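anyone seen this seq b4? input:
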Amino acid sequence: MKDLEVKDPIAPTKRIHKLVLTGGPCGGKTTGQAHLATFFESLGWKVFRVPETATVLMSGGISFGELNEEQILDFQEHLVATMMALEDTYFSMAEKCAQNVLIIADRGTMDASAFISREAWEKILTKLGLEDIEISDNRYNHIVHMQSAAIGAEKFYTTEDHAARFEGIELARDRDNRAMEAWRDHPYVDIIDNRSDFDSKINRLIDLVVKRTGINVGDRFSANARKVKFVISGICPDSDFPVKFTDFQVVHHYLHSAQKGFQTRLRKRVRNGRATYTFTVRKPELQGQTVEVKQPISQRDYNNLLAHRDDNHLPIFKTRRSFLYENQQYQLDIYRAPCHSRCKNLILLETFTTSNDDELVDSLPPFLKIKKNLTGDPAFSMYNLSIRSDWEESAEQFCHKLSSDDEEEEENVYDVRKAHERLVHVSEENTVFDVRRNERQISESSDSVSSL
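predicted toks r here
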């Protein structure tokens, strides 16, 4: 009989990562989902989002607070069965995908145990023929608990952004603790609290998931990473672009907002003919931080919300190109027609970094003609770029900083003129590489003179 050949195990060529986002109300799960989906899709992954089953059921008229003990037990039993059926649909679809897949579940099976006694939970498991370890450890790869704003960020706690949310602060804290306890025994649980600001909280979420999946994206999501933006002069043909990239066709519409200082917008993001839709609310600065709440929406909701678009703003059409260079993720926003003349041929590069400005310039992709660092310049914010009229004619619409404070109109006009000059003349700038090279030459010359 021929000897069997023993070979080294072959690593799987496709990844399916099953993630549960849990935690108390107003913890950032919905916004976190949207950011996770955007990031992983930019890397070429397929992202499935399992809706929160309890919200689906309660939106049909069930009020959990009105249920008696018998009804609660019955509700939780059907909740678990429905949740698993929903998840299994996405799990099956993921198995049939050729690409890597991230499945994000808005709460998981063990969350149902947080609202009933252990004895009642055991009865449900027995009736459904389930075991804790099978519906926890063996079902999901990773659990992330997003702590409720009711714990440590009370000024940001609100029930306005969620139709099924009704909890006061004390009840929200209790729900958060119960959810944390429910997943205590899972081998891969990460807890994200409120010690940092909201943007850092979302970055921490993405960083944890990225690390669990083994992806290397440099310091993109480090705690002290900052977002930087540059303007680019032209771009080579797609066939000559030296690194792998993923292109998305994106359109943004700004909507009317009933609340002063709030910015609301819709985004449609298309790749290979498939679209995803996101609704974003950018709130005025509070305690030194600006909060953006992102929510994935259906095509139907997107079309309905388009009726509320703000005609003072033009839609923004652009190609967003995502790529990795030296383990650092970059995004190019290539503005497309139809657009305001101020956006014609505009290309912006964005990334996140912990490096200082000099170190950053040395690490930027050398195959791009990077003109100038625009970080924090309102002249290049998408909101201002989309204003339909000339800035000097609509100075009151120009956003210098997202704040509800009134500013003097005369000061606005002055700033708008300066902003327009920066926008118009940026193409005349030397590249950041030329500037850096000149600085080095001057420094070297000074050192030579000093040594004489």
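Residues 1-12, 402-412 have pLDDT under 50 and may be disordered. The two ends are 83 Å apart (CA to CA). kinda curious what u guys think
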